[in-house]
Fold each of these.
Amino acid sequence: MSSLQTLSMTATPSAGVPDLSRVPCVDAVGIEERCSRFQTRSIKKESKVAGLKHVLSMIDLTTLEGQDTPGKVRQLCYKAQHLHDALPRIPHVAAVCVYPTLVRVAHKELEGSGIKVASVATAFPSGQASKKVKITDTKFAVSEGADEVDMVISRGEFHRGEYTYVFDEIAEVKQACGAAHLKVILETGELSTLDNVRRASVLAMHAGADFIKTSTGKIEPAATLQVALVMLQAIRDFYYETGRMVGMKPAGGISRAKLALHYLVMLRETLGQQWMTPRWYRFGASRLANDVLMQIVKEQTGRYQSLDYFSKD
């Protein structure tokens, strides 16, 4: 089977539900130790600037507030394309992520830029809606121009052990996405244990997820290095088992460049260079881009610019 055929495979409801009782337990102590080592890596000078630019290219620039307006989304799309025009060779971000009702605005503003339009769906962030509503929500986002859909799993059903229900829901949403990529949000802060994070990751990937994502960013804790490492290890083992690559998106609470670089080190040492592209790795963030830009300016000029030089949206 070719890699293209493998990538296009879509799970069908109730077919291929993995036996989660066979998923190995997570060595929590080992995870803690490994994460502590990632944070001791020192990246300097040219390598640091290259890493920071890499981070910028992987950001899903996000606005998911009740007060979002078409004007705010237009401004965010402009920022996505013009992060800092005074700095040479600065990449644009990977995507702009908005609610389904604002996808059409983002699609128009980003047309021809190479920046993807991502949209949350399936009753984000709670996931508390009927399956019919979730499917309709997904199809609407795609019809408005979304290239990527970020769905949330039904955590209540997962905790009840209704794994077939969760699997089927993900598979049906994946079908509703059509050509759009599906990012499955586990909301790891509500999964309680690293073992549950591992099980949910395996379930989502077998159901057809193109990406697995940590969090909605609406609850605490959101993304952590420990949770991200467990998910990366699940992706690695799934790849060894099936030959299918799955992407990863940590989201929520990642607002500092230094922390983002720790995540990149973890990615490189767990999955390798093949995953070190926006095609396979994203940061879900609203504030991270500005801090990364400040650090790049500092490396190039020796001094920080004021935050007034950067737009909030």
Amino acid sequence: MKYKQGNYIILNKSAIAREIYSFEILCPEIAEIASAGQFVHIRAEGFTLRRPISICGIDKNKGTLRIVFEVRGEGTEKISQLNKGDTIDMLAPLGHGFTVNDEFKKVVLIGGGIGTPPMLPLAEIYREKSVVISGFRNAYAVILQDDFKNTGAETILCTDDGSAGIHGFVTQPFEELAKNSGIDAVYACGPMPMLKNISKICKDNNIFCEISLEERMACGIGACLGCACCTVRNDEEYFAHVCKDGPVFNAEEVIW
């Protein structure tokens, strides 16, 4: 696994929703080797353990990565206090990303909450071939919808309380799409119950599905063995590690 560690300049910072921030980071050597589905590991000043954040955008020409993250504790709060022009201590790119296939004619990208950002690099790859289904708690938590539309993807928005888009969960519109068939692949990231349901729908409809798991991580490179998850390989149970073997897995490999 190739990865780099260093201090990189934040080119742009913006607040895109309540307690959700977007950083554009200049890191040419990382952008050159990064792929959709991988993540970065960021050191927050004053904290021993780094914080894993999904890659939301890769611009190899500009040599930049984009990350979008939610403040969920003291570590991410400290990271959110960084500003344009500051440097950020980053270990990246880490993990196993999504499988991209140019022959796919129609894909569905499903993001739940802060699991939505890693879907954007896929939308930028598949563009008009993709349908993006995003789910959020309410209208105040909605992010990246214009970014998805700018790729040419069809977008479907859901909120738990009905304050924006469809009133309900992402599984509702997806199940309807799955029944109509014609889907070559599904990629998803979000809460475990959502991923479990998406995986079942894909299995029932014989659709290839990859999911990105969220997990607490310490080292980020598979050394500490702290982010184990139970999977199946060659018909045997296998404890994989989300940071190294994932975060992306074939949905049929994961034991729920």
Amino acid sequence: MISVSDLEFFVRVVAAGSLSALARELGVTPPAVSTRLARLEARLGARLLTRTTRSLKLTHEGQLYLAEGTELLAALQGLEERVSGTSQGPRGLLRVNATMGFGRRFVAPAVSAFCEQYPSVQVHLELTDRLLSLTDSQIDVGIRFGKVPDSRMVAKRIANNRRFLAASPGYLARCGVPMVPEDLVRHACLVVRSNELAYGTWQLARNGKVKHVRVGGSASTNDGETALAWALDGRGVVLATEWNTAEHIAAGALTVLLEDWSPVPADVYVVYLRQKNLSRRIKVFVEFLQQWFAARRPLPR
């Protein structure tokens, strides 16, 4: 017999990442969590997790139980929402993942406004340097940049987000202004390691013509906020996004370069796994984000 409470417990174990982390969340001892997991595995007659004190790894049976169990829980939650009617509004736990910089500056305020409007939804915002897998980490909604080439996910754009090259007036006074893409080779370029772009190669397009420029400099980072701070300090040229730099450009702290050349945009998408019965709280949250970001477009340059 399927136990909903066991399913929910197992999903929370995987989401927490370790038995001790879940024990802290539940306010119980790690042995209590371990004992309950052992009882679940004994009832199923299968090992679900290979575990140590600090980490968990799903077995084949665990992956199956997690994947199909998550769908069952989502279907049950959707059924309860439909039976209870829409007058009560969305409710329940919603797990959201975003990057550190963009998450702090833009997603966190949106979540705060959402919680005020929908107090029956408990939002857990997970900010990470590396974006989490929605399936493995039990994340309901992810905030991503660029299109997501995964047919298992639904991706809805919530904000246009152009990229462009920029540098501080002080840097340009010392080092000159690049007039063509090839000039970037002679400049200090603040390179950000990014999953969707080749490291150290900037792609620029104009009138259907694309150029790939290999750039470098004395400083590089995996954090866009750090690269932006360096550019503001006059350390070099940065490949920036309009949401992060609009205020600095408007204030004159950064100057846009090579305006007739367009880097690959980093439009912002909200993504979630395809489901037959999508939770109402996910639907409402996605619609809320679309409206929230549309009302806060950066100033046009």
